[in-house]
Structure formats: structure tokens, C-alpha cells
């Protein structure tokens, strides 16, 4: 965040004279604060609540989908409040402007930003509350507050003997006023940051008490399943409601914007009735493309449109003219589904001019817009209860599943839970875009002198702005939603942030080359897309690092040393590259039938290098070992970093080996894990993760493990077979 602690902590006094610290925190004016005598609760800011009974509650403004925010962000506030993280109870934040992600101006969890954007604000909130508690105790003891200390939820008297519990001091603390800047604990005094490894949500998840969206139960709740058009854009023409509505347990059969919902008293009764539903679809405006036609349209666009320049340095054409060798290659990546283990679901209850929604969502404020779209309510009439998420990977940033539940509840006047089947989740996902890359490089005497990269494909914001733009202006009437979306696209890069989803990872090309030309040819075939774990870095990582490998071999140089030499001015890139090579024993002999490949990529501010050791067994690719080095700045929870990087590696390997969504006449061909495979336990390689010690500000770890592993595997297969694969998924070719 671009503010110092002094501007962050301009305090003011409320009408009663009690401290209103929250008024000066970014966007916290709407959160009730101060001391409540009826409950014995002190709420000094938007995140903390401390009671006279020494209960400490932390409002977690980011969701927990397995990436560790529940523990990581709690650790931040615990450190400067000076209490153990396990002494704090996290609670998921409601949809409210106070909890927006400052990078996106929306209340969403994504982009591996949770820790980076919370690093200073949460520590400052904890330190401020701690200081106010010390000031209150010092007033009682009539001593200097700076002479007091804290330990385990107590303020300690300067004599080192007397102490007072935080809970005993909350009412007095609420009347204190901080003047000036609050100091955060120096690194030398940290007790929990960099050391805390136990996950705070582990027990709840192990014992089944953690509530996911699919676990929600509401009194009087009914169940709905939705039959959607097999082809995107198809509309309902007619359906046999008379037959289905007479089946056991069926309550209603209703048409909504996305299809036909069968509502029943039990989930499996709804599913059984759905099997009898016959829908006549109007495909006049539906998608009709095949996968081959998608890539044909990309190639045609690339041939006719050189694209918008995204980075230009030197003169690439001059470099080509002077080159002794020019290398060209084309890379293609397919559509990818998210395959979250908890399929899409939401529970909605629309009644009495209000709506309540219980959902595993990555963007609660966008959920409010989704409900408003399909009801007669305004976003402010909608309460979103966020649950644990059984995986997100970007899929739950789009709120179509919440929209469906709200639409059904609005029509029937009952609390409704909508659950997608695995088949529905696969066939009606919003996918990682298929992308095409055209690469060209110039070499002179083995030296890389020019780099050209043309990225061809859609931008995700085109699909996401529908709800994102209205969420930034919740006061706007619904008739303006479409206009806001159109204006958001029109002013992209001017009044709104530039959409980097297609080019991120391409424009940050780190290698020392004098002539660089990077372009994006924007073309969209109409297949619905959204964010996917590591977004543009995932496809650009494959193109960039595979082509770098090709250039190294063309230059007759070792791929590791080739990269290393070109990173002379990039010490953090070089450090992770060296560490990964060291871990893997780069240059040492391998067992027969194995190849080794290397790749490096920086995404979301985090530097990651990986070496993959792979072979071919029984006609299938087998990955034996992945050695990884990561520099994510200051580490808060080391074990979570290791887990997330390893999870990203396995996620990336799944995509590299099996990930492919294909279309025929606009219909997705895959349906479940038998034809959209995940990496199985017995296929899991040995993974070693080394964390580079750093004093730099922390960056994200949920996604950066994905991009390098895909090209590293492809490079390993080339080292083994001598055949270069330029499209995904990778195949076993001896």
C-alpha cells in the first residue's frame, strides 16, 4: 500500500470522546467501532475485536480456500498485538467496502495479493491496539507507557512483576488517543512471523467442523439443480414442466436466465427429476465453434494484425537483419477447467426486501451484484455469508452460481441450495483461455540479440467486467450496470486498470537482450473465460521458457548457463536459478531413461526456478523429481510457503500432462475426472522446495509455483527424446 504508518494512523475522537481509530483506516468508516458496555467488547478498527473475557476476534477480509490466509494474516496481527496466533479467532468478513483489496478496489481474494496487501495494515492494527492497551495500563499505574511491555495478552508493569490482562483494559484503552506514528516490532523481536507453522484451520478441517458452502443448512431449505444449455449462449424454447413437476419431492420447475431449475425437497430427488427433464433449446445465437476453428481464428488474427505493442526496446528488425541465426516457433495452449474439488454451489434466501447468501466465493461484493441482477433488490439489500472454499483457483471470482441460487429463491420464495454436479462443473466452467504465441529471436555468434513475442488470444476483463464494474459503484441503479461494464472496457488502461491477463509474464521478460518487441493481438472466439491459477503467467511461462530453452540449444550452450549469463543484472532471478540447479545436481549424470529440464519465472512479485527430472514409462510421461527455489520476500509461515509452492507444482503438472478442454459444435467434450484427469497420488513426484532468505516485503505464493513447472517438464522431455513439443498437453514420445 502506498502510505506510511503516520498517514495510516491519523486518529480522531467520536462524539462521546472515545477513540475512533477506524475512521482513519482506509475505508473503515462504516465499521462500528469503540467500546460496547453491554457486551464488554472493544472494536478498535475494522479487523480487531477484544472482549473483557480476553477473547480476540480477527475479521479476515480475504477468503480461505486452502492457500493459508486464515493462518498467515492472523499471524501478522498476532505478532504486533503480542499474542500467540492460536489465541485469535478469525471470522470471515461480510461484503463491505471496508474490506476491499486495495489493488483491485474490490473485495476479492486473488492474484496472490492477500499477504502483500495486508503486511503493513494488519501489523499496524495490531500494534495500535497493543499501544493503546499499554497506555491504558500506564494511566492506571501512573507510569510511562513506553516503560511498559506486553507478553501473552498481558501488559507488564515496568517492575516486571505486576501485569493486567488485555480484557481488563479494553474499556480504558478505547478512550486513549494515539498521536504520531506507531512503531512495528523489529525483525529481531519477532516471535511468530517467519516461525509459525501450524495451521489454525487444521483441526476444524480434520474434524469436519469447518463449514464449506456445500455444508450450509438453513431451516426450510430446499434443493435445486439447473439444466443449462449444452452450448454457450443457447436459450430455453420449451420444457416438459408438466411431467417433471409430478415426480416425487418436486416442488417447482422454473425457468431462469441460465436454464431450467428443478426444485425438490431433497437433492437426489431433484437430480432424479432432472433426468426426466426435456428441454428444447434455441441455438440461433449459441456458440458453434470447434477447438480447431478457435486456433484457426487465432492464426488468422496473428497473420492480419501484428497486435498492440506492449514493450519495445531497441530495434528488433535491425537485430534480425544483422543476425547470423534467426529462430522462430509457435506455441499453443488449450482451454483449461478449474476442477475445484468442491463443485460450484450456493444457498440463497430472498425474502421481505432482503437477501441472504451463503457461498464459497472469492468476491463477496460481486456476489451482491449477482443477486441484485436477478431480483428486485439493490446490492445493499444483500448479505453475503462467506464460507470456507473447497478450492478456488480463480473460478469462484465469477458469481454465476450465486446468481442461479438467488434467481431460483426469488421465484419460489424459499431458501434454496443450488449444487452443481461434477459434470456440470466441467462442462459449464469459465475456462483458462486457449492462447497462441508466435516467437522470433535473433542470434549473432551464439549471443541473443533480439526477442519478439506475439501473444494471441482474449482478455479476461472482457468477461469479468459485467459484475466487477457495478461492484465498484454499488450506489448505481441496475439499469446502469451494462453501461458501467461498457465504460470499464472503454476506459481500460486510462480510468480503469489495464487488463494484463493476456500479457503478464511476457512483458516482464527479464533476460538481458538489447532489442525487445512484445505485442498482443486481441481476439476472442466467444468461449467464456475467467481467471485460472497464475492466469497469464501460466501460458506465457510455457512460451517464454520453452523458447529460451530452444535458443540455448540453438546457440550450443547449456540451458542453465545460457539463462544465467543473461541474468547478470537480475540478482534475485539469478539466485533462485542457481539454488534450483544446485538442489537438482544440475550437470551430474542421470539414470538411463531420464531427462532434466530447467525453467525460471517471476509472477506476482515472487521469483521461482524449477528443475524437473522426468522419463517415459509404459508409454506415459513420468515425473520423478522437482527441485524448486523460491524468493517470496519475507516469509510469514514457512510451512505454508512450502505447501503452496508444492501445490502449485502439482497443479501445473496436472495441466501440463492432462489439461485440455475441447469443443465440438460449441459443446465441451469433457465431463468428469475420467476425461479431465488430475495427477494421482502414485504419480506425484518428489518435490524439494528451498526458500531464499529475504528482508524484502512479502509477495504471493499461492500461484507462482505453477508457471515454471510446465516448461521445465517440456524441456526435460526434449533433453530425453530430442523432440520439442510446442503445444500442451505434453505427450509421451520416445
TrEMBL record:
The keyword Signal applies. Keywords: Signal. Pfam families: MoCoBD_1 (PF02738), MoCoBD_2 (PF20256). Residues 1-29 form the signal peptide. It comes from the Bacteria. InterPro entries: Ald_Oxase/Xan_DH_a/b, AldOxase/xan_DH_MoCoBD1, AldOxase/xan_DH_MoCoBD2, AldOxase/xan_DH_Mopterin-bd_sf, N-heterocyclic_Hydroxylase, OxRdtase_Mopterin-bd_su_IorB, TAT_signal. Residues 207-285 form the Aldehyde oxidase/xanthine dehydrogenase a/b hammerhead domain. This is Xanthine dehydrogenase family protein molybdopterin-binding subunit. It comes from Marinobacter qingdaonensis.
Amino acid at each position: 500500500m502506498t502510505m506510511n504508518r503516520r498517514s495510516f494512523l491519523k486518529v480522531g475522537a467520536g462524539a462521546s470522546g472515545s477513540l475512533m481509530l477506524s475512521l482513519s483506516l482506509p475505508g473503515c468508516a462504516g465499521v462500528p467501532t469503540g467500546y460496547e458496555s453491554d457486551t464488554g467488547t472493544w472494536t478498535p478498527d475494522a479487523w480487531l475485536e477484544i472482549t473483557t473475557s480476553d477473547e480476540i476476534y480477527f475479521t479476515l477480509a480475504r477468503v480461505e480456500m486452502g492457500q493459508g490466509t486464515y493462518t498467515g494474516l492472523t499471524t501478522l496481527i498476532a505478532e504486533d498485538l503480542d499474542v500467540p496466533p492460536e489465541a485469535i479467532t478469525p471470522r470471515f468478513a461480510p461484503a463491505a467496502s471496508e474490506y476491499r483489496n486495495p489493488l483491485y478496489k474490490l473485495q476479492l481474494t486473488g492474484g496472490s495479493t492477500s499477504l502483500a496487501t495486508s503486511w503493513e495494515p494488519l501489523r499496524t492494527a495490531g500494534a495500535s491496539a497493543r499501544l493503546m492497551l499499554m497506555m491504558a495500563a500506564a494511566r492506571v499505574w501512573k507510569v510511562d507507557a513506553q516503560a511498559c511491555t506486553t507478553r501473552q495478552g498481558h501488559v507488564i508493569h515496568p517492575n516486571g512483576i505486576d501485569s493486567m490482562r488485555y480484557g481488563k483494559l479494553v474499556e480504558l484503552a478505547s478512550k486513549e488517543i494515539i498521536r504520531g506514528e506507531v512503531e512495528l516490532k523489529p525483525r529481531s523481536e519477532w516471535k511468530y512471523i517467519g516461525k509459525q507453522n501450524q495451521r489454525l484451520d487444521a483441526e476444524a478441517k480434520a474434524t469436519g467442523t469447518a463449514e464449506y458452502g456445500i455444508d450450509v443448512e438453513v431451516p426450510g431449505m430446499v434443493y435445486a439443480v439447473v439444466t443449462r444449455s449444452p452450448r454457450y449462449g443457447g436459450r430455453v424454447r420449451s420444457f416438459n414442466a408438466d411431467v417433471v413437476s409430478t415426480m416425487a419431492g418436486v416442488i417447482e420447475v422454473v425457468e431462469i436466465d441460465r436454464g431450467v431449475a428443478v426444485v425438490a425437497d431433497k437433492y437426489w430427488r431433484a437430480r432424479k427429476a432432472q433426468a426426466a427433464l426435456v428441454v428444447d433449446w434455441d441455438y440461433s445465437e449459441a456458440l458453434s465453434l470447434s477447438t480447431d476453428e478457435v486456433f484457426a481464428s487465432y492464426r488468422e488474427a496473428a497473420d492480419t494484425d501484428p497486435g498492440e505493442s506492449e514493450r519495445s526496446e531497441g530495434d528488433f528488425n535491425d537485430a534480425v537483419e544483422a543476425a547470423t541465426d534467426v529462430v522462430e516457433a509457435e506455441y499453443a495452449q488449450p482451454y483449461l477447467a478449474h476442477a475445484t474439488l468442491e463443485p460450484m454451489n450456493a444457498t440463497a434466501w430472498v425474502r421481505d426486501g432482503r437477501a441472504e447468501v451463503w457461498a464459497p466465493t472469492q468476491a463477496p461484493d460481486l456476489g451482491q451484484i449477482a443477486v441484485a441482477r436477478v431480483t428486485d433488490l439493490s446490492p445493499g439489500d444483500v448479505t453475503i455469508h462467506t464460507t470456507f472454499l473447497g478450492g478456488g483457483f480463480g473460478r469462484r471470482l465469477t458469481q454465476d452460481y450465486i446468481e442461479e441460487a438467488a434467481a431460483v429463491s426469488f421465484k419460489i420464495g424459499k431458501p434454496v441450495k443450488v449444487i452443481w454436479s461434477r459434470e456440470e462443473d466441467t462442462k459449464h466452467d469459465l475456462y483458462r483461455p486457449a492462447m497462441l504465441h508466435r516467437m522470433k529471436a535473433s542470434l549473432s555468434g551464439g549471443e541473443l540479440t533480439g526477442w519478439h513475442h506475439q501473444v494471441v488470444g482474449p482478455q479476461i476483463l472482457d468477461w469479468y467486467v459485467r459484475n466487477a464494474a457495478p461492484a465498484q459503484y454499488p450506489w448505481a441503479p441496475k439499469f446502469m450496470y451494462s453501461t458501467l461494464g461498457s465504460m470499464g472496457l472503454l476506459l481500460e488502461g486510462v480510468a480503469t486498470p489495464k487488463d494484463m491477463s493476456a500479457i503478464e509474464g511476457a512483458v516482464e521478460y527479464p533476460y538481458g537482450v538489447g532489442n525487445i518487441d512484445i505485442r498482443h493481438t486481441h481476439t476472442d472466439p466467444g468461449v467464456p473465460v475467467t481467471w485460472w491459477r497464475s492466469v497469464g503467467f501460466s501460458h506465457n511461462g510455457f512460451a517464454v521458457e520453452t523458447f529460451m530453452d530452444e535458443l540455448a540449444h540453438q546457440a550450443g550452450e547449456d540451458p542453465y548457463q545460457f539463462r544465467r549469463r543473461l541474468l547478470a543484472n537480475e540478482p534475485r532471478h539469478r539466485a533462485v536459478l542457481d539454488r534450483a540447479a544446485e538442489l537438482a545436481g544440475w550437470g551430474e549424470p542421470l539414470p538411463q531413461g531420464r531427462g532434466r529440464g530447467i525453467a525460471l519465472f517471476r509472477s506476482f512479485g515472487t521469483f521461482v526456478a524449477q528443475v524437473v527430472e522426468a522419463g517415459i514409462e509404459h508409454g506415459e510421461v513420468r515425473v520423478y523429481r522437482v527441485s524448486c527455489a523460491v524468493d517470496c520476500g519475507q516469509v510469514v509461515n514457512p510451512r505454508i510457503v512450502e505447501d503452496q509452492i508444492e501445490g502449485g507444482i502439482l497443479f501445473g503438472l496436472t495441466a501440463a500432462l492432462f489439461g485440455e478442454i475441447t469443443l465440438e459444435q460449441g459443446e465441451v467434450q469433457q465431463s468428469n475426472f475420467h476425461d479431465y484427469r488430475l495427477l494421482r497420488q502414485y504419480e506425484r513426484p518428489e518435490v524439494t522446495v528451498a526458500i531464499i532468505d529475504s528482508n524484502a516485503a512479502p509477495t504471493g505464493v499461492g500461484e507462482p509455483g505453477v508457471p515454471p513447472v510446465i516448461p521445465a517438464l517440456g524441456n526435460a522431455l526434449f533433453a530425453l527424446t530430442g523432440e520439442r513439443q510446442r503445444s500442451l498437453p505434453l505427450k509421451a514420445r520416445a
